[in-house]
Amino acid sequence: MITYCEELSEGESQPVFTPISAKRKPSVPTYGEQTDNGSEFALEFERATAKLGIGRYFSRVKTPKDNPEIERFHETLEYEWLYNFNLSLDPEGLNPRLTEWLIEYNFNRPHQSLAYLSPVEYIEKELAKIRSPVLPMWSASTRA
After folding, report:
1. Is the pLDDT of residue 119 over 50?
2. Structural domain that includes position 74
3. End-to-end CA distance of the chain
4. I need a labelling partner for 37 at 20 to 30 A (CA). Which of 46, 59, 118, 139 fits?
5. Domain check: are 95 and 58 in the same one?
């Protein structure tokens, strides 16, 4: 599951953490999320993950190599979405466009590194291998 924080409008006091899966629920359950050690909205994020029964794991301080996939995702987000005329100071216009891009990126867009599957398709395919009712069979005998 990927979560995001909606930017606050003027006069709002609490950020809102919304799971992307609330928009389109994947068949993969979420048991934990790895985050950096940033303190911005930490209490609200902790409450949201606790409410959903999701464990939270932290990267080591000043160690981006602990989570290279997310660091690469941030680069993709910056160059493919933010610099593509989506920079806005209006949260009401920004949040829906970002949500739609994130859904497209995770549920529909093929990724070369995932054999041209979307991240959700790749995870579902890998979980199907684990959950497969039929395991590979090998001969129990070592005699020729």
Report:
1. yes
2. 67-122
3. 50
4. 118
5. no
